[in-house]
Amino acid sequence: MAYSEQVRRAAADTLQRRRNRAKIRQEQTQRRLLAEIPALAENRQRVAALGVELLKLSLLQDQSAMKEIQAQIDQLGLEQAAMLREAGYSADALELKPYCPKCGDTGTLPNGEKCDCVRALLQSLSLDEIARISPLGLSSFEDFSLDYYSAGIDAEYGMSPRENARDNLNRCREFAARFPAAGENLLLLGDAGLGKTHLALAIARKVLERGFDVIYCSAASVFRQIEKEHFDGGHETATLDSLKRCELLVLDDLGAEFNGPFVTSALYDIINTRIIERRSTIYTSNIVEESDFMRRYGEKISSRLLGCCAILPFWGEDIRKLKAAQSDNI
Question: In this structure, is the dihedral angle defined by the CA atoms of residues 72, 75, 77 and 80, taken in order, positive or negative?
């Protein structure tokens, strides 16, 4: 799985804090119990001394003597457990108590697989990141209101903005329910304030809730970040790699980014890699004409982008302005 660099760093920091807290708790418990049960200190000193002796014998490969020392250590362990139980504590009261006993707060199981605890952590951090950086927070299908779209038939399209919005809502719900449908992509096109980002984020929420990794980013900000990392480090960036590998990418407001040679090359790399590896992507853009895509990005990018996506057009009145007008009238 590929999460954003910020999410991965935050998860690593959280795991480290969990390990630190578990170690502090263990040390506090040990100090308290050793003071309360004096015989424990002598027991642990004997175990430590035998441990040193066992290490020396392992270097000499004296198996018989090692077995004898290990038996003494095991017996001291039984005596320690008995002391603790007699004092009213559990037999493992002195042991380290990690937040996740399965992985010991490392995030990795003994077989090398990612632990469920870090999967849940990454999912939660991704939700937080999307809510923090997206203009609408993390939107849902349930709060996508059709009431802001006119029910009047538009002569140019032969249907009303409301009918079209309902169709787009249903198609986005189906996309989220089918995910991961290998290689299925959406391109949400229309003027500003028509609900494109809202529905893209609603899909992201459903997919994240099902445990998949999702990256949401605005085109303008993420390409600035990619370019900065590239020229600072002189090689492929962690951000660019994450955008190519995540299970679902939401690239918002395509067309708002600075359209220089580096950005064009990075965009082509993202689109082409994700098509080849059949990873789903949702693009939103205020560019509505194919000819405008061609002029801005050229044939190589435009043909891939328009050819690999189901296109969902949006039209109607700017919802943000309608909401603002309603607020003024309250």
Answer: negative
